[in-house]
Amino acid sequence: MKKNETREPLCDDIAGKDCGLKRVIDTVGGKWKIMILCVIDRNEIVRYGELRRAIHGITNTMLANSLKELEADGLVERKQYDEMPVRVEYNLTEKTKTLIPILLELKKWGEGNL
């Protein structure tokens, strides 16, 4: 880059409430949320038990809490069927589908650099 050129900073308000990068990390950060999104992306529609079996080491509490947070943030849709026993399915929202290519790029970067 030439000396006179400016480039877009990652955050104008470093770690402040208006920092888009911080909001993303707050929303999908942590140990489990991206893994949950990966399983749902791979299968398109999943049930709670499928998620529990696919993500080794996650506790019921962490899975339930993470799903509630992802749903509250508009990244996962929860559909409950009024049957006995109750059936609940999860899928990605349209907003989250736009995040998947970014996660794929992060995955590629990690494979090549870490």
Overall description:
β2 and β3 (87-92) form a beta hairpin. Strands 1-3-2 form a 3-stranded antiparallel β-sheet. The protein has 6 helices and 3 strands; from the N terminus they run ααβααββαα. With 114 residues, the chain is α+β, with helices and mostly antiparallel strands.
Could you give a short account of the major beta sheet?
Answer: 3 strands, antiparallel
The coarse overall form would be elongated
Neighbour order of strands in the largest sheet: 1-3-2
Determine Rg (CA atoms, Å). 17 Å
- Helix share of residues? 40-55%
Fraction of residues in β-strands: 5-15%
Average residue-wise pLDDT: 90
User: Quaternary state, please?
Assistant: single chain
Report the end-to-end length measured between terminal Cα atoms: 26 Å
Number of helices: 6
Detail the poorly predicted runs: none
Q: In total, how many beta strands? A: 3
